[in-house]
Amino acid sequence: MQHWDDFKYLLALEETGSLTRAAKALRTNPTTVSRHIKRLSETYKKTLVTRRANGEWSLTKEGIMFAATAKRCASAISALSNNATEDRPEITVTTTDFVGDYILSPQIHNMMEAPDSISLTIDMRDRNLSLAFGEADLAVRLGRPKSGKLIASKLADLEMNIFSPQGRMTKRWVGLPAQYDWVPEMQLGLDFFGCEPTIRVGSFSSIREIALQQDLACIGPNLMMEDWAGLKRMDTFGPSAIREVWSVFHESRRHDDALYRARKWVKSCFSKIEMKTAA
Hints:
single chain; 279 residues; alpha/beta; nine-stranded mixed β-sheet; two-stranded antiparallel sheet; 21% strand; globular
């Protein structure tokens, strides 16, 4: 198969539905994506993509067939690789620091003690890893994905609230970066304080640390904030913010047994959290 690397650009376009989003997923630019897809079309003398009326690009019927074949080839190669060694299958789960530290990591022993255990990596870096290209196998996200050929399953509803050192009232607070102002916990903070955060940082762990160090209020998940000495929930005179948590994987992995076991384990981690909260 000539220019195998070109197929990842075709798959990125299929997954994201946009030349710009495909380039972002591959950490490149739209011109590079277009060039690789053009070379693929010229190599096989097939029209693989077409431009829609709104200016976006989509796969033709032939393009969809080529993408499906590329997925099958990648899956077969992966299966051969797994069968060639006696090592446990490797699964990478990408998620936030909060979910990784407070929900998944404490239950690692349940995965490792299982007779059909997998080799597990939990990636908690703040990056949107591609599920289509195997940068990660399973994503645990605070919100349901709205694009891509993904299969999503809701895991839990997590309560988010406003906290401060000893629960003291203050108008100065720590929140997430501005691009997250739309999420429920940031909306709760913006509505309650009536102003933007004094400080913005990209993780709940950092938010919590800064709130204590600088004597500021903050927003975050109850599970994490209530577990930290010195922080107490402020009385906002209203309901909590609710953040949905979803497990997500690419549809090409629908019948992957190792991925199924990882998903089952992740679900069990959230079930234990819910039981603890209910108790």
